[in-house]
Amino acid sequence: MNIHEYQGKAILKSFGVRVQEGIVASTAEEAVEAAKKLKTEYNSDWVVVKAQIHAGGRGKGGGVKLAKNLDEVKEKAGQIIGMQLITPQTGPEGKLVSKVLIAQDVYYPGESETKEFYVSVLLDRAKGRNIVMYSTEGGMDIEEVAEHTPHLIFKEEVDPKVGLQGFQARKIAFNLGLSGDAFKDMTKFIAALYRAYDETDSSMFEINPVLKTSDNKILAVDAKVNLDDNALFRHKDYEAMRDTSEEDPTEVEASKSNLNYVKLDGNVGCMVNGAGLAMATMDIIKLAGGEPANFLDVGGTANAETVKAGFNIILSDPNVKAILINIFGGIVRCDRVAQGVIDAYKEIGNIPVPIIVRLQGTNAVEAKKLIDESGLKVYSAILLKEAAALVTKVLEEK
248-397 has which fold? Predict the structure, then answer.
């Protein structure tokens, strides 16, 4: 689950990570009041107005602006709130900005120069270990750094038996070229950041940039946080941070029915039980000359209600020209799924696209008989090859 920058910073702060202070605002007037408060509490004459959307690269799209006085705060907050912000991560359609973060100016003059770093904590799935990834090239797209100067990206593996050790935090600070008070502060920052990542059951904490201020303080200027959906039952307060307006409406609707759904750009909708089988089904659709319109895993308890919810979600996509239901009957019996398909079809009414149902496993023969004798416009198959041939047939007919 993605969360906004201001929410990520609140989590970091609760674990003792120093952050760029800020106040969220939904209107230009609220932004002005937030700027006044920052002036009083942190003596911040200038503030940064930052769009709050679930995407990076906001500055490139005009979603991050510096305001030098209250008039500029009102003007620039008014420009950003309500805009359709397009960044390299939003796609051409962009995202609607409904709130901004009014953040303190941390690039103040001092005895030493400021310096930006990149630090993230994430899971290396190949090694089954958490890693701290960091670079001296903060403030830039890490993908560009990796492509053009990969030697400037460092990785520190964390042994899950003992967690992040003190010498590792010191090694990171050393590799970033720090010394003195900044070195000490960075080691504390890294330790607190890793604890925040670990204890919140997150899948990623990305801080870009981490700033060394002119008085040698280390703080998070940005925060991109992804919380593990599967662990949210342990963090009800974090679950409340979910902003469904930032998500695809169809995916939100699917989650209400406990369906794992991801919208794609193709013309063949698919409904499958099991993530691995879903991936194989999408390959079959491609081989048959179609393009998958979605990833939809109904899990191991497919029934009439589940199938009906799946139908409604798939049919909400106007690009769908056919639906392939591919169920392996292990936990669930195929004949029960077949009856669920028939019941859901009758309850929904006239479904405007052909449906191919491939059932294999427990009671597959009985399931095929139920489908064939239902009198509905449903094609049945047992082998994947047969299902692929039927996909080709119905697409040619369309």
Answer: Rossmann fold (3.40.50)
